[in-house]
Amino acid sequence: MIRIKGAGILIKGVEIDNKLAKGGENLFDLPLIKPITLKQAEAAQRRLPSNHPMMAEVELKIRKLASGYKGEKTLHYFLGLLPEKNYHIFHGLRLPARDSFFQMDAHLLSPKLIILLESKNYSGTLTLEKQQLTQEINHTKVVYDNPIAQVNRHKILLQYFFLKYQIPPIPIETVVVFTNSSSEIKIANGYHEAEKKICKASNLLKKIDEIEKYYSKDKVDQKTIGKIKRLLLSKHTPFRSNFLKT
Q1: In what order do the strands lie in the sheet with 100-109?
Q2: Which residues pair with 178 in a beta bridge?
Q3: DSSP 219
Q4: For residue range 134-161, what is the model confidence (pLDDT) as tens digits?
Q5: Residue 242 Cα distances to 58, 95, 186, 237, angstroms
Q6: How many angstroms separate the CA atoms of 135 and 133, rounded?
């Protein structure tokens, strides 16, 4: 078992956190935004009487959504340290896949390759196995889908998407980033893919640097990069839902 311990803009009608929008203008083609469902939940909390029967559900939803958003902001911080010329970064890019959609926490585009990032802000002790991720905290155990499988699925769907729009082949790498610095990560014996595809947020720049060493030559030119950017932004469809039904 391996253990790791750690150290007022609008886009498509969605408001962007001003603090996150500042700086790195050429780096973030799709800035990080506060989730619409989190805004809806916070608005409902303000409107509902404190003794309303749905208040507990609303507060639980806020805690879960706020935790995820906190992790995405941590991811955003470290991505903002990358040289602007290296990548075009898309936060929360949500693209169509037949009759549904798939959403990537962060999509890094360069002439050499694409890197897809999935962030998880789980606390406690996290055990990664091929079929699942288990979280143990406060004597409670919770089982989740394996986030490596999730980000690998996004890679496949993105390849289908590019094929549909006749985008030339470009390598795609995937990484799962654990953004809670206090969590402990365990990897099941023999699970070598996890050893290569996960990192703590504080090690993200090193992980990206390691990946880049395998891709020294450009796979597409700047004209194609421009075409991909325009395609991604035109097909991006922000998630909208009644949060109480999600």
Answers
A1: 28-30, 88-97, 100-109, 114-120, 172-178, 198-200
A2: 120, 200
A3: S
A4: 999 999 999 999 999 999 999 999 999 9
A5: 12, 20, 36, 16
A6: 7
**Whole-prediction pTM value?**
0.84
Q: Regarding beta strands 114-120 and 100-109, do their DSSP bridges make them parallel or antiparallel, or are they unpaired?
A: antiparallel
- pLDDT for 91-119, tens place per residue? 999 999 999 999 999 999 999 999 999 99
Distant-in-sequence contacts of 44-52, Cβ < 8 A, 24+ apart: 44/243, 44/244
Task: Tell the burial category of 155 from Cβ atoms under 10 Å away from its Cβ (0-12, 13-18, 19+).
Answer: middle
CB 94 within 8 A of CB 108: no
Six-digit token string for 168 = 């030339």
Q: Which long-range contacts (CB under 8 A, 24 or more apart) does 223-227 make?
A: 224/111, 224/167, 224/168, 225/88, 225/109, 225/110, 225/111, 227/167
Using DSSP bridges, classify how beta strands 125-128 and 28-30 pair: parallel, antiparallel or unpaired. Answer: unpaired
**Are 5 and 180 contacting, i.e. CB atoms less than 8 angstroms apart?**
no
